[in-house]
C-alpha cells in the first residue's frame, strides 16, 4: 500500500481529509481479518507522529484538479457535484451509490440460488417452493431487491445529472440496500436449511459479504443522519 486517505485534525475544531504518501510520510499497517470481503485485503493504519505536507489536503488536491479539468474518467454531472459541494462530499456520492448496487448484486445472487433451490428441494411430499412460508420469504427478498435496485439507479442518475440531491439519494441507497442484503442473505440461508449454513454452497459467503455493506464508506447510522440533514437543512446537523 503506497497511499492512504485518512481524516486528520486541521486545527482544534476542524478535521480534514489527507492523502498520505508512504514514501513522504511513513506509516505502519497491520492486517485486519474480517467477516467478509475476504477477496479484498484490509489493513489497519497507524499514523503515530506522521507529518503530512499541507498540499496533501484532499480538498485542495481535488479542487486543483477540477479547476484544471484534470478529474479522471468522470461524467460531467459527477464533475459538477465538485463545484456545488465540498470535494469529499461530492467524491463519496459515487462509492455510496456503488456500495448500494454492490449490495443489490450480492442479494440478487442469493435470491436466484434460493428460487432454484425452492423448486428442487422436496419436503412433506412437495417442493419447498410450494410451502406458503417459503413463498413469503421469496416475496420479501424480491421486493427488497427491486426497491434497492431502483434507489441505486436513482442515486446514479442524480450523480450523472450533477443534481445536489445525489448526496441524499446515495446515502439512502447505501443504507437501504446494505440492510436489505443482510435480510435477503439471511432468508437465503434459511431457505437452504443446513446446506445454507455449510461452506459447500456460497450462501454463507453471501451472508458474510452482505454484513460488510453497512459499515465502510459510512455506517448506516451516519448515512441516515446525512440523509435527514439534507432534508431538514442548515442548522439541523445531528453530527456536527
Ligand atoms: C473493509 C473496510 C474498508 C475500509 N476502507 C476505508 C478506506 O479506504 N478509507 C478510510 O478512510 N476508511 C476505510 N474504512 C473505515 C470505515 O470508513 C469506518 O470503519 C467507518 O466509517 C466507521 O468508523 P468506525 O469503524 O471508526 O466506527 P465508529 O465511528 O466508531 O462507529 C461505531 C458505531 O457508532 C455509530 N456512530 C458513530 N458516530 C455516530 C453518531 N454521530 N451518531 C450515531 N451513531 C454514531 C456508528 O454508526 C457505529 O454503529 C474501511 C473499513 C472497512 C471495514
Q: Can you walk through the features of this model?
A:
- The protein is mainly alpha-helical and 240 residues long.
- It has two domains: 3-56, no CATH class; 82-232, Butyryl-CoA Dehydrogenase, subunit A, domain 3, CATH 1.20.140.
- The protein has seven helices and six strands.
- It has helices at 58-67, 76-84, 87-120, 132-161, 166-197, 203-212, 220-232; strands at residues 3-9, 15-21, 28-31, 43-46, 122-123, 126-127.
- A two-stranded antiparallel sheet has the order 1-2. A two-stranded antiparallel ribbon has the order 3-4. Strands 5-6 form a two-stranded antiparallel sheet.
- The longest helix is centred in the middle third of the chain and has 34 residues, at 87-120.
- The protein starts with a strand and ends in an 8-residue tail after the last helix.
- The mean pLDDT is 92.
- Residues 5-6, 37, 42, 215-219, 221-222, 225, 239 line the site of flavin-adenine dinucleotide.
- Flavin-adenine dinucleotide binds next to strand 1 and helix 7.
Amino acid at each position: 500500500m503506497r497511499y492512504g486517505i485518512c481524516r486528520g485534525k486541521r486545527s482544534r475544531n476542524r478535521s480534514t481529509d489527507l492523502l498520505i504518501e508512504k514514501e513522504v510520510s511513513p506509516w505502519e499497517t497491520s492486517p485486519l481479518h474480517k467477516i467478509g470481503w475476504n477477496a479484498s485485503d484490509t489493513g489497519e493504519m497507524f499514523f503515530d507522529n506522521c507529518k503530512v505536507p499541507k498540499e496533501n489536503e484532499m480538498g485542495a488536491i481535488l479542487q486543483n484538479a477540477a479547476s484544471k479539468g484534470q478529474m479522471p474518467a468522470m461524467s460531467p454531472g459527477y464533475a459538477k457535484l465538485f463545484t456545488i459541494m465540498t470535494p469529499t462530499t461530492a467524491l463519496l456520492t459515487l462509492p455510496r451509490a456503488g456500495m448500494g448496487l454492490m449490495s443489490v448484486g450480492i442479494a440478487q445472487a442469493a435470491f436466484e440460488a434460493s428460487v432454484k433451490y425452492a423448486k428442487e428441494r422436496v419436503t412433506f411430499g412437495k417442493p419447498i417452493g410450494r410451502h406458503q412460508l417459503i413463498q413469503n420469504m421469496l416475496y420479501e427478498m424480491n421486493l427488497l431487491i427491486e426497491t434497492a435496485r431502483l434507489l441505486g439507479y436513482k442515486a446514479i442518475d442524480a450523480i450523472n445529472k450533477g443534481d445536489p440531491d445525489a448526496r441524499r439519494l446515495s446515502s439512502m441507497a447505501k443504507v437501504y440496500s446494505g440492510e436489505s442484503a443482510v435480510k435477503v442473505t439471511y432468508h437465503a440461508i434459511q431457505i437452504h436449511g443446513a446446506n445454507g449454513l455449510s461452506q459447500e454452497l456460497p450462501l454463507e459467503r453471501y451472508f458474510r459479504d452482505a454484513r460488510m455493506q453497512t459499515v465502510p464508506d459510512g455506517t448506516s447510522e451516519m448515512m441516515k443522519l446525512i440523509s435527514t440533514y439534507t432534508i431538514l437543512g442548515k442548522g439541523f446537523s445531528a453530527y456536527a
